[in-house]
Every structure is written in C-alpha cells, then in structure tokens.
Amino acid sequence: MIRFPPLFRDTVLICTVLLMLSSAVGYGTLTLLPEVYSITQIGEDEIVLPSDDIPQAEYILKLFVSNLEIVTVAFLGGFLLGTGPIIILIINGFMFGAIFKLLTENGLVFLLSLVPHMILEIPAFIIACALGLLAGEISWNYLLKKERPDIKIRDLVILFLVYPVLLLACAAIIEGLVSVQLLGTL
Asked: What is the pTM assigned to this prediction?
C-alpha cells in the first residue's frame, strides 16, 4: 500500500496557507481597487458553462478535463524545483479570492450553489500542489546530490492519479448535475 510521504502534511499546510493568503489578496484587491476587475476577468473561452448545445455528459467531461489540466500543471510543475505549484497556487488563489468577492456581491444563494463541488475541487487542488512541492524536493535533492529514500517519484505519481483525479471526477459530476440545478433555481 502506498502511503503519503512524511512531509505531505507539512506541504498541505503550506499550500493551504498560500492559497488562503493569495485568495485574501485577490478579495482585498477587488474590494479596495474595483478597477482591477477588468484585469481579473477571465475570457469566456476559459470558463466551462452549461449549455443546451452540448449533452450533460460532455459538459461534465469538459469540467473534469479543465480542472485536471490545472492540477496536472501544478503537480508536474513541481519537478521544476517546486516552482510550478507555488505559481499555480498564487495565481489561482488570487483569482479565487477575486471571484469569491464578485460572487458575494451577487448573493449568498449563488455562492452556496457552488459549495457542493468546491468541497472536492479545492482539496484536489491542494493535494496536487502538495505532491508537486514534494516533487520539487526530489528535484532539489537530485541537484544537491542528496538522497531522500522516503519520497519516491513513482509513489507521488500514483498518489496524484488516485486522489486529485478521483476527487476532480466526483466534483465534475456534482457540478454538472447538482450545482447546475442549484444555479438554475436562482
């Protein structure tokens, strides 16, 4: 049985704190400088929205693939000396905080409609980034010619394929079936 490496808990804490801090900066920036809103707007082609044009299963698959791309870049970017997950956490945290600010202005019911799938998406994102930081440690140890027998690339890859991927699959299904229905009642 593959277990999370000993430092995993620490990297999860680091990722969580970094995501929360960058989210607070995103929220605060939009609060104090509303003109930044135009900078934080995401292009329509970057957001996966439900449509009558595509079947529900295809919509769910698009949600899954969209989120999977982000966590894969975060995880694999960890092999670049841990820089990938840090950059992804800061950018996505800022955007998350800015979007949260906009959503709270549109009402609590709208925000609550996103909670069912976000409960799984955010942990998947944090786990992928934490595994990416551990991959960064492997890279640093390789460059410094240190050995770290308790962290193996194979184990990190398997943990990535199991936890974040499964969480994102469940989140996509919930978002495609439940969150869309909740948004439709608004």
From this structure: 0.86
Give the C-alpha separation, 174 to 161, whole Å: 20
Question: Domain containing 152: what range?
Answer: 8-30+57-180
Residue 6 CA to residue 80 CA, distance in Å, equals 21
| pLDDT at residue 171 in the model | 94
Mean pLDDT for the chain?
Answer: 85
Q: How far is CA 71 from CA 35, 41, 102, 132, in A?
A: 30, 21, 24, 9
Rounded to 5 degrees, what angle do the CA atoms 4, 62, 11 make?
20
Give a yes or no: residue 45 inside a domain: no
Question: Residue 148's pLDDT is what?
Answer: 72
What single letter denotes the amino acid at residue 142? Answer: Y
Instruction: Looking at 33-55, list the stretches that DSSP marks H as alpha helix, in order from N- to C-terminal side.
Output: 37-40
For residue 141, give Cα distances in angstroms to 101, 102, 146, 147.
40, 42, 5, 6
Report how many domains make up the chain.
1
Give the mean model confidence (pLDDT) for residues 134-152.
Answer: 87
- Please give the Cα distance from 44 to 147 (Å, whole number): 46
Residue 97 lies in a domain: yes
pLDDT of 64-103, one tens digit each? 999 999 999 999 999 999 999 999 999 999 988 988 887 7
How open is the CA angle 164-53-43, to the nearest 5 degrees? Answer: 60
